Amino acid sequence: MISSSPLHDQDLSVDLDRKVEALLFVSSGPVGERELASFLGVSSKDIRASLGRLKARYEGASGLDLISVAEGWLMVTAEDLAEVVAAFRDVSQSQRLRLSRAAVETLAAVAYHQPITRAEIEEIRGVRCDRVLDTLLKHGLIRVGGRKKSPGNPLLYRTTSRFMDLFGLSSLSDLPSLEDLMEEIGGYEEGCSSEAGGDVVED
């Protein structure tokens, strides 16, 4: 019987460690050793060895750590970084953007009819929208994209890369139906409305 070489065994260990690390990273809760072993097709002994290597690698040299709880293993931030993580979370939440219904409707109008003028947006919405447009510009969700070749040469508005990032779009061709986008933006509005201290885009 030909035994595997140390180099081959090392490659297998690295591959297993990367897979275990990735699964723990994306998991929303603790993952048991048996569950990991079953999913990856290896023994529980292999999983324990992998977890040991990962934990040793994290100790003192990483912002992450592995902890064992009753239900399994969790990937968490390092205990000594708790203060800076909490401070960042507070700042991040305080800067979270909240969208008013007027902003939602205006943003949807720009997204689906861009480039579009203020008058055209107001025709769609049925109300004035100069203030909400200014605020959407301020928050980087829309931008001025030239002027329309018509009497008065009114400004044309387009969505920005921040808008794309906010709603997980890689290009305008990825825009869902108008109804679906309104639901998605509305859900974002509702989810953010409970965050204290955020900027509220209002008309």
TrEMBL record:
Highest taxon listed in the record's lineage: Bacteria
Gene3D superfamilies documented for this protein: Winged helix-like DNA-binding domain superfamily/Winged helix DNA-binding domain
Positions in coiled-coil regions: none
GO BP terms, alphabetized: cell division; chromosome separation
Pfam families: SMC_ScpB (PF04079)
The keyword Cytoplasm appears for this protein: yes
Keywords associated with the record: Cell cycle, Cell division, Chromosome partition, Cytoplasm
Keyword field contains Translocase: no
NCBIfam families: SMC-Scp complex subunit ScpB (TIGR00281)
Protein name, as recorded: Segregation and condensation protein B
Source species: Thermanaerovibrio velox DSM 12556
